[in-house]
Amino acid sequence: MEAAPQRVALPTRETPPPGTPISVRLRARLRRFAPPLTFALLVLGIWQLYCTVSSIPESSLPAPTEIFSALITERALLAENAWVTIQEIAIGYLAAIILGVGLAVLICSSKMIERAVYPWLVVSQMVPIVAIAPIIVIWTGFDLRPKIIVIALVSFFPIAVNTIDGLKATDPEMTNLLKTFGAKRWARFKTAQFPAALPFIFSGLRIGAALSVIGAVFAEWVGSSEGLGYLILTFNNQTSTTEMFAAVIVLAFIGLALFALVGLLQRLTIPWYEDARFDDADGHEGGS
Amino acid sequence: MTALEGVDIDIRAGEFVSIIGPSGCGKSTLFNMLAGLIKPSAGKIYLDGGEPDSLLGKIGYMPQKDLLMPWRTVLDNVTLGLEMDGTRRRKARAQAMEELPRFGLKGFEQRWPRSLSGGMRQRAALLRTFLAGREVMLLDEPFGALDALTRQAMQEWLLELWATDRKTVVFITHDVEEAVYLSDRVHVMSGRPGRVELSLDITLPRPRSYEMTVSPEFNALKQQLLEPLHEASRKQMEEVR
Predict the structure, then answer these.
(1) Which of residues 61-100 of A touch B (CB under 8 A)?
(2) The total number of structural domains that make up chain A
């Protein structure tokens, strides 16, 4: 612990480079999570204090301790419905990735297709999903299908747009270089265009991840008999505010977990990009 | 618009030829034509006596920017040309590993390009072109972005490399001293439309050494090149006005 290299002790370091001892990594991680956790505890403390001191009824604003105990007493119900929502998000989000990346590749494959499809891609986002979700339910029923469709519709757009930007970001000189190596279009796509687009794609994936959770809740509100969104609505109708808060917290954790999963995937897929960001920290220390 | 007109250049196998001229004189256009990236609207480019449909994949090409892919390690970057040729990965890597020491990159094969210095990046880019195995290599101001000392070291190193392998090198620069020091012949170009103003044989003996750069012969050659070059730059300026 004492021998921790000086460079890791800089406050701007987010991820220590590979090969750093575990203890140092742990400390860096602790340093990273300490501020947000402290802040959360502070807010929870004030919240708790307010609920104790004022006479606000539990049905309006339950204290954090009450929500916590609801999390434990209702754990079976929460877990059961969380599982339903997780499945919806998993399938819907995957569909959004396939749809988003697929459309982006298609649009970038020819100027003609781009001109024909791109405006409609934008128009598709002007149509409020809120308005068409009931129609989707009418078409597809109350099962998993409408949820997947709504989630995919909500989250494919940022994935598609970011992927398109990424695919267009290839340095034209790089394309020229590959041409002089005799590389045909597919080889150029594989070796240059797609890898260069990956950081962009991951940006889209992170936004899409956050949206997919919102999409899931919304789809369940429109027509469902299970899932966390449905549960929140039911608790709301029963003015079981404490349990509602508990369900919201579980939902938030699902969103966080998905976000973290995408982050992990990014670190594994494009380590060169992470390293690049880490190296950049050399230049501007003392910030934040 | 005509970018080039009256560019008659004859390059023999194993020669080191430089093309020098003010920016905007059509050097890049000529270069892209030689690489096969642009087809000339008139005129012909012969290679080994034949006139190929496309020069793409037949000429080694090293643009000004190193264009190393940040997502590939140094080793995977330098084998890019071989990979595009369909060479088996193991064979390509073995070939690259063999050449790494000569290019001053030994021990750096698993590094990301961004962790290399400017000189190393240029050497990696050159190794990538070199490994592609073409007999003619086009180098577009490969040392333009380097500091003076690194540049000098790189020039000496390039000459050594060239002396061993005797590939045909076409070198673009706007540094007269660099052109004289490296080349067998220097072509001076002037712009709008780009044409060759002067072709000068560099009669200095080989191997060249850095001491030669202060010899009277060296200076005389430099002087001969500077005159048309100066004229070309002046004309360019006037046109802009």
Answers:
(1) none
(2) 2
Instruction: Beginning with the edge strand found earlier in the chain, give each strand of the sheet holding B136-140 in spatial order.
Output: B60-62, B136-140, B168-173, B16-20, B185-190, B195-201
d(CA B108, CA B115): 9
Q: What is the pLDDT of residues B124-164, one digit of tens each?
A: 999 999 999 888 999 998 888 788 888 888 899 899 989 98
Of A173, A181, A195, the CB nearest to B71: A195
Q: Give the per-residue pLDDT at B57.
A: 84
Give the predicted TM-score (pTM) of the model.
Answer: 0.82
Q: In this structure, are A25 and A78 located in the same domain?
A: no
In this structure, are A28 and A117 located in the same domain? no
Question: Given pLDDT bands bounded at 50, 70 and 90, which one contains residue A17?
Answer: low
**Cβ count within 10 A of residue B69:** 20
ipTM, two decimals, is: 0.88
- Is-contact A8 A16, C-beta < 8 A? yes
Closest of B238, B36, B15, B33 to residue B7, by C-alpha:
B33
Query: What does the alpha-carbon distance between residue A133 and residue B11 come to, in Å, rounded to a whole number?
Result: 70
Pair A187, A218 in one domain: yes
Q: Are A274 and A266 in contact (CB under 8 A)?
A: yes
Indicate the residue of A171, A272, A279 with minimum beta-carbon distance to B71: A272
Tokens of B21: 């001229």
Q: Are residues A23 and A122 in the same domain?
A: no
Amino acid at B204: L
